[in-house]
Amino acid sequence: MTKSTNEKRHEMGENYLTVSEVMRYLKISRSGAYALTHRKDFPVCLIGGTIRIPESLFLIWLKKQTYVPASIAENVSA
Questions:
Q1: What is the pLDDT of residues 20-43, one digit of tens each?
Q2: Domain 10-62 has CATH 1.10.10
Q3: Is the dihedral of CA 41, 37, 47, 18 positive or negative?
Q4: Per-domain boundaries in the chain
Q5: Which of 20, 44, 41, 43 is nearest to 32 (CA)?
Q6: What is the pTM of this model?
């Protein structure tokens, strides 16, 4: 039985997302996803001209971008 690409990525430690995966995750356009990769505060890894996004850093970045009103934050456990 062969392992899927995601299983192989996970075995190696950090999981890296493609621009297409970020696009689908955020439900944004392809141009919007590429625009994110050009932001100074967005985590990007260039491998031979190919853009990859470290999943753990992407999720941290996304959390920092999320505004949570105080009335909701007091009811959410960290």
A1: 999 999 999 999 999 999 999 999
A2: yes
A3: positive
A4: 10-62
A5: 20
A6: 0.74
